[in-house]
Write a structure and sequence with these properties.
Elements lengths: L1 H9 L1 E10 L10 E3 L2 E8 L1 H20 L10 H18 L9 E4 L6 H7 L6 E4 L7 H4 L5 H6 L6 E4 L2 H15 L2 E3 L2 E4 L2 E7 L6 H13 L3 H10 L3 E6 L8 H14 L7 E6 L8 H21 L7 E4 L5 H10 L2 E4 L8 H9 L7 E5 L12 E3 L4 H13 L2 H17 L2 H12 L21 E2 L30 E2 L8
Parallel strand pairs: 1-3, 4-5, 5-6, 6-9, 10-11, 10-13, 11-12, 13-14, 14-15
Antiparallel strand pairs: 2-3, 7-8, 8-9, 16-17
The structure holds GDP-alpha-D-glucose.
GDP-alpha-D-glucose binds next to helix 12 and helix 13.
Length: about 500
């Protein structure tokens, strides 16, 4: 979604896997134009899907990047498939490139693509963005051929990571595993030099805020349905692809511990976990599917009543509209991945809140988002007791404190929204110096429309960053004194 808006704005060519398989590998690809964007899609063969996508990308790189060595399944055949598909993509893409094209490559499925393009003589500027964590060099080194694979990163001019921690880990890896030299955020290897920098991804805050408010106003079906049977009950929400990195099973256990330790909350609150299945062909995901059912079933049987089910796990995808309304309806969001590149659900939950009566975000310290969203209740997802206590604290939090935290969080997500991310990354990819950092840029924080800062007239929010220009320092903002306008929406 982030890339679609960037491409529609600037125009360009989208190249990638169609998501389908065909019997023979394609030898060429013909772009199809829709508006300002051309799409060049290619199928994989079934054997490429198995080795490249399900195998190396999702059973080796995904767990490794999420620090899960125990789940990392390496096979030489899968690695060969991964390199082969990247080589074929380079062959298909090269004839479509124009000399002044800027090339933006996305995520861990395509790490060696720039190196393959360079081998074919492509000299354009090429950037890479890595959506998931990058582990410390000692963890990455456990992957066979780790030095060869990481060395292909030096074919990029710009490498974008979600956090400074990830950028540091990658730069360390390039130094220790392939003898690169580092100077500030530049890494040199042979004739090449790459900038390695954090670009924390954001969301379209304003659009999501509107979607959530409209969804609750219109009482869309899932919102109505969770409001009905829950009656006056409070709602704790979790939304994640069914993936072991998201900590869903540990979260269910923590909710059970909360109800055991605080029986006065039984019957008063329910956890709704939306968990659309993903990568169902990968055995580790099938096991997670089974385990999450087992844990939810066990806890519901032990703690539930005939008229109250403490945990609902729904394994299907809902519309974005419904999701936005549910976020706004929920008093608490549990975003507790064991490790996550960023986690957009955390940002969506904040964007969706009613500014007059906001809910509380509980956030894992191991989500990239925790580097920016320090006013959430930050927890260690490995500590069931700590998460259980955070649920209690969130449910009991006075409105004044919820407002104070929410205003800071909202200011952060809106000043580092998707337009900020795109413009910063594109500026850096065009060779401009962009200030480093995954914290809020200095400047006046934005608040949801309808909220007015104490002592200052209501005025329209300033637009986000301009390419690499330092922002002017804003006046200090005291969120405790902030007062919403009387006509701000109040319905949850
Ligand atoms: C990777 C990195 C990084 C979820 N359920 C439904 C649904 N969703 C949407 C959410 C959110 C997105 O999917 C999930 O984004 P996350 O960021 O939480 O996680 P990943 O899918 O693992 O994404 C992650 C991200 O890339 C971006 O760089 O933040 O760390 O792992 O937008 O709302 N959407 C709909 N129905 C659902 O049931 N419509």
């Amino acid at each position: 979604m982030a890339l679609r808006s960037a491409l529609e704005q600037h125009g360009g060519l989208w190249f990638g896997w169609s998501g389908a398989t065909s019997a023979e590998p394609a030898t060429s690809v013909s772009p199809v134009k829709h508006g300002k964007v051309s799409y060049a899609l290619t199928d994989l063969t079934e054997s490429e899907r198995q080795s490249y996508y399900l195998g190396f990308a999702n059973r080796a790189l995904w767990p490794l990047m999420h620090y899960r060595l125990g789940l990392t399944e390496f096979s030489r055949a899968d690695y060969a498939g991964y390199l082969g598909v990247n080589r074929r993509f380079a062959r298909l893409l090269q004839p479509l490139l124009k000399p002044d094209d800027v090339i933006w490559i996305h995520d861990y499925h395509l790490i060696p693509l720039a190196a393959e393009l360079r081998r074919r003589g492509v000299t354009n500027r090429i950037g890479y963005f890595h959506h998931i964590p990058w582990p410390p060099a000692e963890v990455f080194a456990a992957l066979p051929f780790s030095s060869t694979l990481i060395s292909t990163m030096t074919a990029y001019d710009l490498i974008g990571m979600q956090t400074q921690n990830d950028a540091r880990n990658l730069a360390d890896g390039l130094v220790t595993l392939c003898g690169a030299r580092r100077e500030g955020n530049r890494v040199r290897a042979g004739q090449r030099e790459a900038v390695v920098q954090a670009f924390p991804i954001g969301i379209d805050v304003e659009a999501f805020r509107k979607l959530a408010a409209a969804s609750v106003r219109a009482a869309t079906q899932p919102v109505r349905a969770t409001t009905g049977p829950l009656g006056g009950r409070k709602l704790v929400i979790g939304v994640d692809r069914l993936d072991y990195s998201k900590g869903i099973v540990q979260r269910l256990e923590a909710f059970g511990t909360f109800l055991r330790n605080h029986p006065e909350h039984r019957g008063e609150v329910g956890l709704l976990q939306i968990a659309p299945p993903s990568r169902t062909d990968v055995p580790e995901y099938a096991e997670l599917d089974r385990l999450s059912d087992e844990v939810a079933g066990r806890l519901n049987a032990a703690l539930g009543e005939f008229d109250w089910t403490p945990i609902r796990v729904v394994k299907k995808a809902y519309s974005r509209n419904a999701l936005a309304g549910l976020y706004r309806r929920a008093q608490v969001a549990l975003v507790t991945p064991m490790r996550d590149g960023m986690n957009l659900v955390a940002k969506e939950y904040v964007a969706a809140q009613n500014p007059e009566d906001p809910g509380v975000l509980i956030l894992s310290r191991f989500a990239g988002a925790a580097q920016q969203l320090g006013e959430a209740l930050i927890v260690n997802p490995f500590d069931t007791h700590e998460v259980a206590e955070a649920i209690r604290t969130a449910l009991a939090m006075p409105r004044s404190e919820r407002l104070r935290r929410f205003e800071r969080l909202y200011a952060t997500i809106s000043s580092t929204d998707i337009a900020w991310w795109t413009s910063r990354y594109l500026a850096a990819l065009s060779g401009l110096d962009v200030p480093s950092g995954d914290s809020v840029p200095p400047g006046t924080p934005k608040l949801p429309r309808g909220t007015r800062r104490s002592g200052s007239p209501a005025k329209p929010a300033r637009s986000s960053v301009a390419h690499g220009q330092p922002r002017k320092a804003g006046r200090d903002f005291d969120p405790v004194r902030a007062k919403p306008l009387p006509n701000a929406p109040s319905a949850r």
